[in-house]
């Protein structure tokens, strides 16, 4: 049994490719919502406005089109979703209404918008768009002659200004999205003529501009887009329903149908001389008012006359739909807890997940490096998986052993289709994520978001998050989860990336000072040693990737990572789980400590082994030393206990100052390198 090797798997090239692919998918998904053809069965806004002069038709359950505030939805525990049409913006409100109408889920182009939160985000994009196109050129959006003044060069110039706005780098893609929406609706005559833009759309919305927007997005926007708490709750509700509630019932159906000798028949219609109450009862399942499985009964008088069974039951298509729901639920859990790339997750076969003699589940992973050779089949290695997933996959295999559902035995292939699948591509992954979007109402369900979500939970852990982790992994303790993570380099890297994204500024400040100036503390010594050992990885573009690689090695030992700046200007860099019988100085004496502990940086103590001092903290340390000396020298009646405490603090400060002096330019001198700005 061979485990994945972290260094071989997470090369610089693979990390860069992952980030690039994630960014491209994220940006392209956003752009897809602003272009396309309106449904042929839908009534365009142009027709509605022409036939209803009072504009009192509904745009939601709560509001009419003409209202000054569109109330779109009420969400329990949150503010209602609204779009405002302010009086002071009257000359822009007409265009705002016609464009945002198509950003509402019920009316969106090609049905690509599923959430009212997306509608609200388009309201913000509209304000950016108005600023660059109309306000900058002193034009009114309610004046047809002003709109006629807008030329392709004017729009391209506005896009270029947005691109060059370093203070608001996201404006470029936001502007392009709104212009695409406007052009698309104008071209289809889906908005009133008064607001249509009559220009050649390819002069603005073309391949060159599209590629430039995507490249710019990749360069300035982090691809770190974990699911929100509410989105994760929806994913869990959907998944656990099909894996915990529906799956056992489907097992009963499968065993019953198998006993009827239907297990190996591709045409699996069940025939009966009379209505079969047992068959109907066992093959029609509803749980919590959700239809899990159903069968249909057909009566044929002709068959009875021909002395054959007149009642026939069809069940296979409904069974296949239920199997796909279970598959979707497994996809969510595998994505969250194993964190593979899309290409790798698509290659998983049913038999790639198995249980060993010790009762532990494992998964064979076919990993792909940087090769573009279509004949390259990858290298298969193995990682552990949580028992909950393993048990569910075992049950899923049993469900698929009925009739011809095994097919080519890809774990995540569709069970509804009958077409032979020779290879599992990104198109199949997209079908799954589209179904998950449909049944959960969550926007932007991409494979790369799953592993980033669980990593985010792990590094920003709280009592609530730990409960979720325990449920997901089936582990009794957080420590057990960390041991699983350490054996799974996919998740190790995801968490390392999360740490790098969340603590970039702090971590880079520490690295810069260690490399170019000075440092003090055990954690800093470890980093300095790594720099001296592999100096080429701590310069230029290599640095950001090396941060991930460095943290990955720490995590691979089964320890978590914490970094935070303290009020003293020092840093707390802590790895591992804090236990109540071995508290760091910042937590000693505190009451009502929770079950899962993190350092308290508001009470940072310089005698702590996790404290890192850098050059910028030198002045604060020197001031502390002067203060403690003055206290000891000027106070005659200081108590023994207080005096001992002050001398301890003084010694800690003096030690850091001594090490800062001793390590001044140490790494720089050793490497004989120039200062490189981060």
UniProtKB/TrEMBL annotation:
<protein>
    <submittedName>
        <fullName>Tyrosine-type recombinase/integrase</fullName>
    </submittedName>
</protein>
<dbReference type="Pfam" id="PF00589">
    <property type="entry name" value="Phage_integrase"/>
</dbReference>
<keyword id="KW-0233">DNA recombination</keyword>
<dbReference type="InterPro" id="IPR002104">
    <property type="entry name" value="Integrase_catalytic"/>
</dbReference>
<feature type="domain" description="Tyr recombinase">
    <location>
        <begin position="308"/>
        <end position="497"/>
    </location>
</feature>
<dbReference type="InterPro" id="IPR013762">
    <property type="entry name" value="Integrase-like_cat_sf"/>
</dbReference>
<dbReference type="InterPro" id="IPR011010">
    <property type="entry name" value="DNA_brk_join_enz"/>
</dbReference>
């Amino acid at each position: 049994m061979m485990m994945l090797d972290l260094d071989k798997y997470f090369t610089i090239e693979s990390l860069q490719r992952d980030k690039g692919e994630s960014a491209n998918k994220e940006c392209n998904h956003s752009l897809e919502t602003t272009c396309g053809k309106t449904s042929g069965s839908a009534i365009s806004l142009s027709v509605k406005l022409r036939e209803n002069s009072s504009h009192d038709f509904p745009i939601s359950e709560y509001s009419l089109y003409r209202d000054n505030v569109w109330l779109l939805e009420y969400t329990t525990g949150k503010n209602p979703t609204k779009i405002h049409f302010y009086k002071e913006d009257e000359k822009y409100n007409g265009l705002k209404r016609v464009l945002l109408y198509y950003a509402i889920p019920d009316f969106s182009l090609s049905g690509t918008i599923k959430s009212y939160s997306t509608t609200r985000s388009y309201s913000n994009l509209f304000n950016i768009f108005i600023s660059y196109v109309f306000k900058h050129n002193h034009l009114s959006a309610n004046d047809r002659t002003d709109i006629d003044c807008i030329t392709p060069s004017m729009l391209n110039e506005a896009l270029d200004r947005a691109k060059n706005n370093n203070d608001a780098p996201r404006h470029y893609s936001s502007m392009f999205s709104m212009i695409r929406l406007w052009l698309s609706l104008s071209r289809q005559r889906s908005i009133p003529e008064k607001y249509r833009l009559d220009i050649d759309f390819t002069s603005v919305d073309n391949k060159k501009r599209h590629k430039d927007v995507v490249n710019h997005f990749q360069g300035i926007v982090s691809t770190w887009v974990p699911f929100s708490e509410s989105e994760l709750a929806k994913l869990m509700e959907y998944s656990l329903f099909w894996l915990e509630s529906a799956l056992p019932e489907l097992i009963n159906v499968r065993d019953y149908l198998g006993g009827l000798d239907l297990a190996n028949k591709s045409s699996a219609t069940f025939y009966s001389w009379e209505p079969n109450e047992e068959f109907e009862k066992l093959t029609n399942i509803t749980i919590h008012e959700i239809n899990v499985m159903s069968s249909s009964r057909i009566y044929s008088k002709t068959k009875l006359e021909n002395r054959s069974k007149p009642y026939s039951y069809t069940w296979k298509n409904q069974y296949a739909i239920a199997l796909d729901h279970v598959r979707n639920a497994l996809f969510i859990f595998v994505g969250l807890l194993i964190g593979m790339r899309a290409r790798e997750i698509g290659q998983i076969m049913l038999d790639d997940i198995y249980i060993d003699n010790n009762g532990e589940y494992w998964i064979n992973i076919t990993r792909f490096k940087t090769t573009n050779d279509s004949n390259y089949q990858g290298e298969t290695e193995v990682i552990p998986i949580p028992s909950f997933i393993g048990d569910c996959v075992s049950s899923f295999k049993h469900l698929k052993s009925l009739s011809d559902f095994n097919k080519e035995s890809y774990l995540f292939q569709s069970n509804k289709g009958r077409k032979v699948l020779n290879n599992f591509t990104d198109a199949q992954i997209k079908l799954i994520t589209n179904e998950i979007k449909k049944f959960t109402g969550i926007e932007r369900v991409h494979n790369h978001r799953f592993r980033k979500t669980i990593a985010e939970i792990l590094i920003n852990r709280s009592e609530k998050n730990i409960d979720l982790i325990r449920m997901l992994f089936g582990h009794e303790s957080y420590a057990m989860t960390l041991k699983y993570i350490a054996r799974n380099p996919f998740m190790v890297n995801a968490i390392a990336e999360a740490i790098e994204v969340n603590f970039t500024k702090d971590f880079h400040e520490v690295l810069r000072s260690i490399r170019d100036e000075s440092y003090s503390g055990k954690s800093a010594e470890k980093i300095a040693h790594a720099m001296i050992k592999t100096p080429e990885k701590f310069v230029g573009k290599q640095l950001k990737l090396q941060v991930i690689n460095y943290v990955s090695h720490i995590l691979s030992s089964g320890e978590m990572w914490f970094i935070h700046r303290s009020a003293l200007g020092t840093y707390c860099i802590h790895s591992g789980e804090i236990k109540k019988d071995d508290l760091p100085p910042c937590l000693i004496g505190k009451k009502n400590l929770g079950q899962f502990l993190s350092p308290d940086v508001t009470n940072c103590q310089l005698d702590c082994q996790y404290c890192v001092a850098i050059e910028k903290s030198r002045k604060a340390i020197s001031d502390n030393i002067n203060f403690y000396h003055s206290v000891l020298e000027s106070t005659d009646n200081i108590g023994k206990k207080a005096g001992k405490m002050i001398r301890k603090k003084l010694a800690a400060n003096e030690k850091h100052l001594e090490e800062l002096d001793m390590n001044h330019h140490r790494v720089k001198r050793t490497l004989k390198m120039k200062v490189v700005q981060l």
